Amino acid sequence: MAGQDIRITGPDGEFSAYLSMPAGGSGSCVVVLQEIFGVNEVMRGRCDELAADGYIAVCPDLFWRIEPGIDITDKTEAELEKAFSLMHAFDPDKGIEDIQATIDHVRRMDGSTGKAGAIGYCLGGLLAYLTAARTDSDATVGYYGVSIQDRLDEAGKISGPLMLHIAGQDQFVPAEAQAKIHAGLDPHRLVTLHDYPDDEHAFARTGGRHYNAESANLADGRTRAFLRQHLR
């Protein structure tokens, strides 16, 4: 089934989201949390892949307060400059409110089993961590999340299973930050951390400059098993 745009109402207003439905028309739900490039082809593709696996997948436009409808790539310096300016203007606390609104929305959809999780990448990886701590997501996955080390005081609020994929050569999450993340989260019974020692940031971004198919397939396989365990 082809993807479509839907509207979701949050605490501060209405925003758009990309929805991809499984062929059977029903399933558990996964909210895809965008990178700094908006709801672009890569994020829509993630939704379509999840739908092919039998999930109702939706990617909300979390930049809507700044500039609705962002759809850019990492291919040019101008786009990268735009993406980083959006990231700096973005309020993660407001983003989490929108994520909870999206989770609530998909749980009420026709065909939904009522179970809902989330997967985030880059900025969305940080939001995945915060989603596990602040929302009622049933299972959450983060890929190469940034600035998690600065928010470890929230780890005690994590009440559902969380899996994080950490790129060992991440230029935005240096070794010291990774060590802090491990020290803060390794003891948590609901958190699973996977390290990819030789990989750089965004190693799972299809078509990206640091894409590593072998590591991406390994991480995605772990994610699929994690979602099957907790959402089905």
CATH architecture: 3-Layer(aba) Sandwich
Strand content: 15-25%
Q: In the CATH hierarchy, what is the superfamily?
A: Alpha/Beta hydrolase fold, catalytic domain
Radius of gyration: 16 Å
CATH level 1 class label: Alpha Beta
User: How many E-type strands?
Assistant: 8
H/E topology pattern: EEEHEHHEHEEHEH
What is the domain tally? 1
- Terminal CA distance: 21 Å
User: Helix/strand/pairing class, anyone?
Assistant: alpha/beta
Contiguous runs where pLDDT drops below 50 for at least 5 residues: none
CATH topology (level 3) name: Rossmann fold
Strand order of the largest sheet: 1-2-4-3-5-6-7-8
| Mean pLDDT value | 96
Shape field: globular
What about the largest sheet? 8 strands, mixed
Give the fraction of residues assigned to helices.
25-40%
Q: Number of helical segments?
A: 6
